[in-house]
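Predict structure. Chain length: 250.
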Amino acid sequence: MRRPLLIFAALAAAVVLFAIQLAPASLADARIAAMTKGAVRLTDAEGTSWSGRGILVAGATRMPIDWRIDAWPLVRRELQLRLVRGEGSAAMPKGDIAIGGNTVALRDVDATIPAAFLATATGTSAAVAGGDVEVKAAFVEWAPPANRGEARVRWLGGWLAVPGSTGSTALGDITATLSASADRLSGPVSNSGGDLAVRGNITIGAQSGIQLSLVLTPRRADDRKLAQVLSMIGVPEGDGWRVEWRFPLR
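Prediction complete.
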């Protein structure tokens, strides 16, 4: 009985993989919309779910994407997704993403994502964000309580504006170098340029979410308007204000 069952299982797996290969790439839109509660959609999809391309849309921001899915890991309930960057397409993300059970692994990731795209995708409506977020990771494995690897995140030309306001606050280039250990990713945060000096730490945990502890200091001592805003959201520390933010991951 064991041999016929194994043959049947192999045939069933082949049928499933064949169906995935033929499924149009546009079907991915429904899955992405469900995962992001409608915040992100996939448009102009071409190819198949197995190998396709399209445009990710969040609000008014669009980002091209080109992907490949390895077949046989799906039989083990593992998704191995490869993001491909074509020649002359520096704006497209690239890298390998493996998802299985409670583990997510990133390899050779290089992506530049508009800050406005991330703000819309995560449902952050307290402020309007600008600039681009650059993510680079040779290898990171999220497998709490045994995370490992490192990643660098840079917010280039960042700025924030409160909805309805006529001005914005320039943040310059903000850099966070994250190291994975135990059940979290954490590391220092600093910036160069902008209206504020930024220094502090970021911690990302499966249960605690994203936690930021920063000291924000106006670069101009006579910027009373900015100092007043910081005094409303932070606690005085030295010549600046310490602010604490927490964003749940789910």
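Summary: Residues 24-101 form one domain.
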